[in-house]
Amino acid sequence: MGVAVAELESAVVLITGVMASGKSTVAQLLAERLPRSVHLRGDGFRRMIVSGREDYAPRPTAEATAQLRLRYRASAAVADLYAQEGWTVVVQDVVLGEHLDAYLDAVTARPRYLVVLAPAPEAVARREAGRRKRGYGGGWTVGLLDEALRQGTARRGLWLDSSDEAPEQTVDRILADLATARIAG
Fold first, then answer.
1. Closest of 171, 161, 163, 178 to residue 29, by C-alpha
2. Can you state the angle between helices 142-152 and 121-129, rounded to 10 degrees?
3. pTM score > 0.90 for this model?
4. Which of 113, 146, 154, 167 gets the highest tally of CB atoms within 10 A of its CB?
5. CB within 8 A of 168, min separation 6: which ones?
6. What angle, 0 to 180 degrees and rounded to 10, lies between the N-to-C axes of helices 23-32 and 167-176?
7. Which residue from 25, 16, 45, 13 is spatially nearest to 133, judged by alpha carbons?
8. Quick one: CATH architecture of 3-183?
9. 150-182 pLDDT, tens per residue?
10. Could you give the CA distance from residue 147 to residue 96 in angstroms, rounded to a whole number?
């Protein structure tokens, strides 16, 4: 086991970014490189709501905001449970703006790491057009969400412009720069 991999034992790694930034693929590949890991998909908590769900929109209702915060608290709690049992948890979700610090504060496991995938909007638009699932809609555009990322999200952790990289290269960069990704506290 390499030094970088050993640093991640019992850790929580949050991989965030806009929709179609590569979070799912990068999180899965990172988890596959680790000896004892969990890939926790935050959106699964949103999809668990069977009736009464209100999706978060550019102008969210109070209920949509409450549901988003609940989703983040649930994800952080599950990540902590796995980390406490010795697993490395790679969490993948869209956690931006004011919600980022609250999410990181909700994770009690140490160490914690933050990776923000920030490809150029043009790259995101190409990726969105080339995939089966659609992330954008409900008022969201690539430009609007990119603005929320770049202008409304604190510059913490490791920010990567993965526009021209294969996902494996992005994972290599994450493992090579864990010190930047580590969140103090």
1. 171
2. 140
3. yes
4. 113
5. 29
6. 60
7. 25
8. 3-Layer(aba) Sandwich (3.40)
9. 999 999 999 999 999 999 999 999 999 999 999
10. 10
